[in-house]
Amino acid sequence: MKNILLLEDLPEIRTWLKALVMQVFPAAQIVECARVYDALAQVSAQKFDLALIDLGLPDGTGVDVVSALRESQPEALSVIVTIHDDDDHLFPALQAGAYGYILKEQSRELITEQLQRISQGEPPLSPSIARKVIAYFAAQAKPQANALPHVQLTERESEVLLRVAKGFTLPEIGVQLGLSRHTIADYVKQIYRKLNVSSRAEAALEAQRLGLFGRR
Amino acid sequence: MRAHQCQQSMPCRQTPRLRLWWAWLTTLLLACSASAGAQTLVFTQAQAVAADTEYFPDLPQVRTLALPDDWAVSRPDQSGPVWYRLSFDAEALRASGELLALYIERACSAVAIRLNGKLVHLSGRLTEPVSRNCQRPQLVALPVAWMQPRNNLLDLKVMGFPLHQVASRQRAGGLSAVEIGPYAALANKHSWRTVVSIRMPEVISGSLLLVGCLIFTMGWLNRAQSFLAYYGALLIGWALVLSRQWVADMPWPNSSSEFLLAILASFVTLAAVQFLLRYGGERRRWVDVGLPAQCAVMPLTLMVMGTQHLHAMATFWYVVLAVEVGAAALLYLRKLWLLRRSQFWPMATLAALMGLAALVEFTAQQLGVDLRIVAAAQIIPPLLFVALGLRMVQQYGRALQDAQHDRAELERRVQEASAQIERNFAQLADLKVEQVTQQERKRIAADLHDDLGAKLLTIVHTSDNERISTLAREALEEMRLSVRGLTGKPVPLVNALGDWRAEFVLRLSQAGVDGSWHAPADDDVRQLLSARAFVQTTRVLREAVSNIIKHSGASRCTVRCTIAEGDFQVVIQDNGKGIPMELDGRLDRGHGMASMKHRAKQLQGQCLVESGPGYGTVIRLTIPLDRHLASV
What we know:
The complex is a heterodimer of chains A (216) and B (632).
Chain A: E1 3-7, H1 11-24, E2 29-33, H2 36-45, E3 50-54, E4 56-57, E5 60-61, H3 62-72, E6 77-82, H4 87-96, E7 100-103, H5 108-119, H6 127-141, H7 155-166, H8 170-177, H9 181-210
Parallel strand pairs in A: 1-2, 1-3, 3-6, 6-7
Antiparallel strand pairs in A: 4-5
Chain B: H1 2-8, H2 14-39, E1 41-43, E2 45-50, E3 63-66, E4 69-70, H3 71-74, E5 82-88, H4 91-95, E6 100-104, E7 107-108, E8 110-115, E9 118-122, E10 138-142, E11 152-159, E12 174-175, E13 178-182, H5 183-221, H6 226-242, H7 254-279, H8 285-305, H9 310-339, H10 344-367, H11 371-462, H12 466-487, E14 491-492, H13 493-511, E15 514-518, E16 528-529, H14 531-552, E17 556-564, E18 567-574, H15 593-602, E19 606-612, E20 616-624
Parallel strand pairs in B: 15-17
Antiparallel strand pairs in B: 1-13, 2-3, 2-5, 4-12, 5-11, 6-10, 6-13, 7-12, 8-9, 8-11, 14-16, 17-18, 18-20, 19-20
């Protein structure tokens, strides 16, 4: 992790987060922003490896930054840092391409551990998020009038999702399916990627339908 | 047609009554003829001479001829009175002692009768305007005082018109057979004849007039059914035409009457043709104009041709009019055949009967047919008219009923639609209220998150005091849960179990406690949990797990969830050192026990805690599952 973007509007929280990040990734360069506008400018200016993005910002929502990052720098990891833990807020961010989420009020140790895990390639997945993903892909699988072939989950991925929805942790699922923890984490990453791809395709189709593309 | 129907169906009350009627009639007729035949003198010959004198003239032209005498045959050009002389002996007749009478069936068009030179009877005016008594039978009581035993002279002066001056044959001058006999018997005959020739046409005229006026008014008021007006006019016209048979005295000369009758005929034709056309649903502009024009032209031609050629012109015009009506009738029948075949045969029968009557009339005009057949033929059209008129009234009534029914139906539909609209509106209003409420809640939640959450978060991360940070953190979690309880929809119990399991396992593993979770299989769990119940249960679970992690020092923790008898039960067991006892032997009320019990009570459930040193702690939480929440 060399370049890290930090987007948070509350100054105290920003300070605290920066301290935490510096502890986890001592060698990294941290860029701080307090507004979506600034963050978007930064995204187009330089390359980032990791971005910690707050959702509720004064001039917009962090989801826009996530999409911008995903479009221009697909290798960057976007992590949502938020108060909200409900899927109504988190799901759109995941659809936009976020890699994971961290709840702000947790203790230092917990957040550190979560950050480390994310950077090692183990994005978190809660049961409610898993349920939403299942519902989303089920809706996509219905025969619709869209011309694009929809993205589908493999059987394994669906298995993992179902078990997460039931409340099993990733290690437990690994034990149940006879796979390593790393493999399960890979599946989760795949799921998130497919979610993003599918969501973007859906959005593009919708925009095309509404005739937005032609207006360039 | 009625008789035909009777034959087909089962016991029909009509047939025996009809037969009885016929039997009675025949006996009466026989009785009449029997009594008449007894002592009646029938004159079949008379001496006749054409002269316009007060008494029987003594002229050399006197000839004997046979009675009945039809002038169209014997003297076609005769246009003046003709004298007939009959002589008879009164002895045989006077012997019976009864009153004697003279009966003449037909004396066209007026007759003066002298018995032995004395005037005994005058049927009407013999000078212009001549009384029109062609159809009226004459019955004269002969005073016995004026009769001689032998050789009584009966002089009849008959005033009539030649055929070519009248419009129809029945009006041509003539004298029928003369009968002398007992008054009673002849009176019978006379009354019968009067009924048939005079009374019936009067009655028919009257009823046709009434029905015609009724139907005409119906048609006049309802312009959409103009055929009714024409039908009414047809009936009225026919009634007027029929009146020629019983109206005796007109204030104008005979030629004028004939003239008027001819015009009436054209008027009747107009009504008939228009009726037929419109009843069939058609309307021709040229007909609308042509028929009234014909009504004007016909009298003109008759006037032009003069009274001498009245019969010829009238016959010609009658043929033309008959052809017009016939054509209209055929057109109408053709339309029926094409569109409404069920009604074709009745109407065709009607038309055929009318045609038959017309044919009989025509032959009577040209050849001179027995009066009784002509009378019978003349009754048929009025009967048909009345029948058809009644049918049209029935149709009219039916149409009115249908219109009313349709209107009632329409009103009902409008009511239904209104009720539907009201229901939809109520539904929409409900949805709207729910939508607004939901939006309101979301706004409150967002506000809470933004303001309160941000502040609490700041406290968490900027406070030096660990306890304050923890409290602020817990407060934030509480706030989140509260918002969830506020805005949340009922949660499927399956999902709740999944969420709880994940949190439970994660927290215990982070704290280094060995946790195991037992819950029923997903397929057996179909209930819904209200948002509030979910939130409160989550709090209880978190509280319990926090206690285990912080205070119990346990190394193992087991959670068992069961659903039994509509209740949801969670049992949390650990092998820690237990909750310390108070001095009075009860459990220490700290450690969130009170709040757990309180929360359970709020959900109409209960929370039991058992604890003891070396025994660990067992928390039993039971909450009822809402029955009114629909199952998944």
